[in-house]
């Protein structure tokens, strides 16, 4: 990736001479939009002019061949006005009711404006479990990947209608970071009511200065994060820093920029004020490292010579190449891959549980369809969910 020279604020923690990434170099981008930017609270409606300008930016990226996902807040903010709910914090059941009403308007609005640019929108509602529990994680990852293969733009939100206090994110900054890591995005954009990270909360300290580049999120950076800025936003700078830790540890760059401008992505491209959070990794390598070393294997797949050779050429593992299944595991669990000589070839997240894997091993796709009574997944382990010993 090419870069432009930029020197961090010398008063900023962890300040070093760094290089600022070039926005147009990124190819898979997650954009998070907060409620305060999207919803006119006084009138209980979407800020259509602003949203249209953002979609214009998205369409420009889309035309360049970028894959774009949007994590959009706003359902509760829209629904609470329609239902006449009071200002201030809502009880859980009121939040769920507001989300149920507001999500309809939110999704329809995104679909209509994207459609004006010839782009199809797909609604994806996630809970905490969808990004934490591996079987559901694989399902969600597969859905997002297929939508982007079909040139659609996923519009993602937390499923507030069913999420409870104990099993929810509570803010879309961290949800967006989890989506970015799950989808192996190389950039996460957090559009905010502030144009970046400052040396101190600018509302409290008039001498606070913007930090343009954060090479690494350390204790000093965490210490200067403030709290939420409005009742429509359940996040604040603190949650954005948490999102940055999630994203950068998984190989995804992150940028915080103001959404209080028309065409906010274009503004970043043109060098507008923002804060970049850098990663030294890349999403594919970070994900494979996680698979290789951070997960406890639940079983073993023994492969034939042809399958081992195919994997080393970059192919996915097909059931036909599996000769024996050991252990009890569920879909999404990590398993060890061993060649005919018993040596470990690699590890991966398996697409079938142990019972089904044992049934379909050694079988071709037509045979599997006949056995399962329908079209199943063609790969036992997709190459993106696999880390080989040579990697």
Strand order of the largest sheet: 7-8-6-3-9-13-14-12
How would you sum up the major sheet?
8 strands, mixed
Overall pLDDT confidence: 86
Q: What structural class do helix, strand and pairing data support?
A: alpha/beta
Radius of gyration, whole Å: 23 Å
Q: What spatial form do the alpha-carbon principal axes imply?
A: globular
How many H/I helical runs?
14
The overall strand count is 19
Q: What is the terminal-to-terminal distance?
A: 21 Å
Would you identify the CATH architecture of the largest domain?
3-Layer(aba) Sandwich
CATH topology of the largest domain: Carbamate kinase
Give me the CATH superfamily of the largest domain.
Acetylglutamate kinase-like
Pick out the low-confidence regions. Answer: 1-17, 228-235
Estimate the strand proportion. Answer: 15-25%
Count of spatially separate domains: 2
Helix content: 25-40%
CATH class of the largest domain: Alpha Beta
């Amino acid at each position: 990736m090419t870069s432009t020279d930029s020197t961090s604020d010398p008063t900023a923690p962890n300040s070093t001479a760094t290089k600022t990434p070039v926005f147009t170099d990124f190819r898979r981008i997650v954009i998070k939009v907060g409620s305060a930017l999207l919803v006119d609270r006084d009138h209980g409606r979407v800020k259509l002019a602003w949203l249209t300008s953002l979609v214009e930016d998205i369409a420009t990226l889309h035309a360049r061949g970028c894959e774009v996902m949007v994590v959009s807040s706003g359902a509760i903010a829209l629904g609470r006005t329609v239902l006449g709910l009071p200002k201030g914090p809502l009880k859980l059941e009121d939040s769920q009711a507001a989300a149920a009403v507001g999500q309809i308007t939110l999704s329809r609005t995104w679909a209509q404006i994207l459609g004006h640019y010839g782009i199809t929108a797909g609604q994806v509602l996630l809970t905490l479990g969808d990004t934490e529990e591996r079987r559901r994680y694989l399902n969600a990852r597969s859905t997002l990947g297929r939508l982007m293969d079909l040139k659609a733009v996923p519009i993602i939100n937390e499923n507030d209608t069913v999420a409870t206090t104990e099993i929810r994110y509570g803010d879309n900054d961290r949800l967006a970071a989890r989506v970015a890591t799950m989808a192996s995005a190389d950039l996460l954009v957090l559009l905010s009511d502030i144009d970046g990270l400052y040396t101190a909360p600018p509302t409290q300290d008039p001498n606070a200065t913007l930090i343009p580049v954060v090479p690494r999120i350390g204790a000093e950076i965490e210490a200067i994060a403030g709290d939420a800025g409005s009742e429509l936003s359940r996040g604040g700078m603190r949650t954005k820093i948490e999102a940055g830790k999630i994203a950068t540890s998984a190989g995804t760059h992150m940028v915080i920029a103001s959404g209080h401008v028309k065409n906010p992505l274009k503004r970043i491209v043109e060098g507008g004020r923002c804060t970049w959070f850098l990663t030294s990794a890349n999403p594919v390598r970070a994900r494979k490292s996680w698979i290789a070393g951070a997960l406890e294997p639940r079983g073993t797949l023994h492969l034939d010579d042809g399958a081992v050779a195919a994997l080393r050429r970059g192919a996915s593992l097909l059931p036909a190449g599996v000769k024996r299944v050991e252990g009890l595991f569920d879909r999404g669990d990590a398993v060890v891959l061993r060649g005919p000589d018993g040596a470990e070839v690699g590890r991966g997240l398996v697409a079938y549980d142990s019972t089904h894997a044992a049934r379909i091993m050694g079988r071709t796709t037509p045979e599997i369809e006949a056995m399962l009574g329908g079209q199943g997944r063609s790969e036992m382990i997709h190459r993106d969910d696999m880390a080989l010993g040579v990697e």
